Amino acid sequence: xxxxxxxxxxxxxxxxxxxxxxxxxxxxxLKYFFRLLPGFCLGDGLLQMSLCQKGQxxxxxxxxxDMRGLIDTPxxxxxxxxxxxxxxxxxxx
Length: 93
Hints:
Blueprint: H1 2-19, H2 24-34, H3 38-50, E1 57-61, E2 64-71, H4 77-90
Antiparallel strand pairs: 1-2
Helix pairs in contact: 1-2, 1-3, 3-4
């Protein structure tokens, strides 16, 4: 229950920080610490996949979402791959 609540709260916080121009760099750095919680990895991965349209996903950079530099696959490290890697390490896999 605690992982669910912290993951959901941090995911929403991260998304909002990513939308505000003055906090995008901070969000980019904080995501590496947020990913230490499995709930955040799951929620963030699902959120990133929901932003994909027709197999094209926006690239997340330190300046926010880059809609011009689209990525072909949702499993790339810039979209959900890094969260999946963190989950595998946390799960002991």
